[in-house]
Amino acid sequence: MIFSDPAHSPASPLTLALNTLMARHVDIIFPSCALAVLHRGQPVVHSAWGEIQGQAASTETLFDIASISKLFTTTVFLDLVSSGRVRLDDPLCAVLPEFARSGPRPIEGGQDPHTLQRQPVAPELAGQTVDPRRVTFRHLLTHTSGLPAWRDVFAIAGPVPFPPQALQALERDARWAQALPVICNYPFMDQPGQRVVYSDIGLMLLGQAVQVMCGQPLDQVIYAQVLGPLGLQHTMFNPVQSGRATLAQTAPTEMDLRWRQRRVWGEVHDENACGLGGVAGHAGLFATAMDVARFGHAWLAEPERLGIDAELAAQAKTAQAVTDDVRRGLGFVIKSRYNASAGDRFSEDTFGHTGFTGTTLWVDPQRELVVSCLSNGVYLGRAAHAPHAFRRELHDLLAQSL
Question: Per the confidence metrics, is the pTM higher than 0.85?
Answer without folding.
Answer: yes
